[in-house]
Design goal:
Distance between the termini: 103 Å
Order of helices and strands: EHEEEHEEEHEEHEHEEHHHHHEEHHH
Shape: flat
Radius of gyration: 31 Å
Structural class: alpha/beta
Number of strands: 14
Number of helices: 13
Largest sheet: 8 strands, mixed
Helix content: 25-40%
Strand order of the largest sheet: 1-8-3-4-5-7-2-6
Length: about 425
């Protein structure tokens, strides 16, 4: 994956004690972990607690108290190479921390206005945000006695371009629906975005014990290295069909991205095919959008190192395309589909409605395209705005007319009573 230049706009400041605030007149430089749930725009005040044990590798003493004059518990941990960084963050989360600050073990690391990444399967499960500060700044915090209060805010993350990937399965309705709805937005972003579909697989543990030599597992290829869940239970489709359709889409995307988008746009158009697409359905649909199915078929075969037809024995070799996807999933920590990754940050707000993703893209881009201006106009004046305004105006008119009518009736009543009294006196 290509990493775009990213700037984190925010600050970390010392509020008290005063002498520590003077040591950091411009705040504390930090980098932000590309995992956890980042809270944009909110001003957070918190009390700093030093982890026990300080390296965070073993279970941390629970933070079972809340200091009265702060909102959040911020846990300070040394990020020495004693154990995985995300093990430390996970232990901090279990201890009750709201934010974790990691002290770098090497002084050479640059931390200002950047994201940092951790290659671990745990990253997709992290909830709390993590900051990383320099060793020198961390030592000052560690050596300060008494209560330390911090102020923290992440205003936004800015990038010149967006690289995003959708981790998906070809049998997933939600993945296909998102792509079909988001296609127009993707095209309107133009050069500002770069996209790739990536396909998540599992593996057969029992097959690994026998060296991936099993050919009788209908839900796997490469002897059980890459598997998918049977998409229709007792139906005719198998997990292997899903894997092979994944491969056809990988090959098509690498050969012609525009035709891949066209293919996805009509993916559910053939009856009795989608979402469990076998080779016949897939090639018929590819032909309908102008794809040379011969080149796609050859690409799938070559990914197994084959030249002939794909049969049960032929799909035992490892597959370099699936292996590449599997390695990337392990690096980022992808364990479910669909998952959207934006500049190597896992997007956690949900894919439905797709306008949420559009708004997120517009917030990130340093120079946003016209589609973001149109979004702002829609947000300020949605399509139904004028209808609501007209209805509100009519309601006001009816209320005023009703009020005038009631006043007139009262006036007439008083007048009638006057005449009745006058007649009686006469």
């Amino acid at each position: 994956l290509v990493l775009c230049p990213i700037v984190v706009c925010g600050y970390l400041r010392v509020i008290e004690p005063p002498e520590l605030r003077e040591a950091f007149p411009n705040g504390i430089n930090y980098s932000l972990g590309a995992f956890g749930e980042v809270i944009f725009g909110r001003q957070i005040f918190g009390g700093l607690v030093k982890a026990d044990p300080i390296n965070g590798c073993n279970p941390i003493l629970p933070l079972d108290y809340k200091v009265e004059n702060h909102e959040w518990d911020i846990l300070l941990i040394r990020d020495d190479p004693d154990c995985d960084t995300l093990v430390k963050v996970a232990n901090a989360e279990l201890a009750g921390a709201d934010i974790v600050i990691l002290i770098e073990s090497e002084e050479s690391i640059k931390t200002q206005d950047r994201l940092f990444y951790v290659q671990s399967n745990l990253s997709n499960n992290m909830k709390i945000p993590a900051l990383r500060i320099t060793k020198a700044d961390g030592e000052i915090l560690l050596n300060t006695q008494g209560f330390i209060r911090l102020e923290f805010q992440i205003q936004k993350i800015v990038s010149k371009r967006i690289d995003y990937q959708l981790w998906m399965l070809s049998s997933s309705d939600s993945s296909i629906n998102f792509l079909q709805e988001f296609r127009d937005y993707h095209e309107n972003f133009g050069k500002h975005v770069k996209f790739a579909p990536l396909f998540l697989t599992s593996f057969c543990y029992g097959c690994s014990l026998t060296g991936f030599t099993q050919i009788n597992n209908p839900d796997c290829v490469s002897g059980g290295r890459y598997c998918a869940i049977d998409p229709d239970g007792p139906g005719p489709a198998t997990g292997r069909d899903v894997i092979l359709e994944n491969l056809r889409q990988i090959c098509l995307f690498e050969q012609d991205q525009k035709k891949w988008w066209a293919y996805i746009s009509v993916y559910d158009s053939l009856p009795n095919c989608a979402p469990h697409m076998d080779q016949t359905c897939s090639f018929n649909l590819m032909t309908s959008v102008g794809v040379d199915v011969g080149t796609v078929s050859d690409c799938v075969k070559m990914s197994f190192g084959l030249k002939g037809d794909i049969g049960a024995l032929s799909i035992l070799p490892d597959n370099y395309l699936l292996k590449r996807n599997q390695e990337m999933a392990e690096q980022i920590g992808i364990d479910k589909t669909p998952t959207l990754v934006v500049n190597r940050i896992i997007y956690r707000e949900g894919l439905n409605p797709v306008d949420n993703v559009l708004q997120f893209f517009c917030k990130i881009l340093e120079d946003s395209p016209p589609i973001c201006d149109n979004l702002y106009i829609r947000k300020q004046r949605p399509p139904y705005f004028w209808y609501l305004l007209a209805i509100g105006f009519l309601i006001c008119l009816l209320f005023v007319a009703s009020y005038i009518s009631m006043r007139q009736k009262k006036r007439n009543s008083y007048t009638n009573e006057y005449y009745v009294i006058d007649d009686a006196e006469t």
